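ESCALATION

Customer reports they have been waiting on this structure for their group meeting. Please prioritize. Original submission:
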Amino acid sequence: MVILAPISSSACFRLLFLRWNGDTSFAESLYIVLAGFGNGITMAAVFIFLSAGIKKSENAIASGGFYLSSSLGEITGMTCQNAILQAMIRRIPSERLDGIDGGAEIIDRVTASVQNLWLLSPHVQKIFVDAYIRALGYTHRESSVSTRGKETTCSRSSLSFVFDR
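Update from on-call: job pushed to the front of the queue and completed.
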């Protein structure tokens, strides 16, 4: 179970990265549920192993440390994914709105509030919707990397891919 859960969770995050493209079916939207379920099983199994492998008198300290470290990891992961999302949402439209007057102002307005998106022309709306979908895909790619546990929660490869361009 401990081996199967992270593998299935990582596979689901990869499917999210590959298959969420703006025309997602209901069945494909369930990938996120399966990915979260795999992460939950992994956390529960690791906690059980931790509890079984220590003295009863050290259980409170170990449990507190386990939940503290997992919470810090989740916060770090969400922060990194938000940084990736924000960077991609600014970068992709700036490349496509290069010849449009007030392109930088449009990007600032839409990134400040998504509701401003609906005030734009359909062509510009499509640029931003595509940017959000691609950015969300990159965050799922990051989740796939961090689920495997072979790199840090916010992988250097993802951050360099987003910010070095």
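Sent to customer with the following note: Residues 147-153, 155-163 have pLDDT under 50 and may be disordered.
Escalation resolved.
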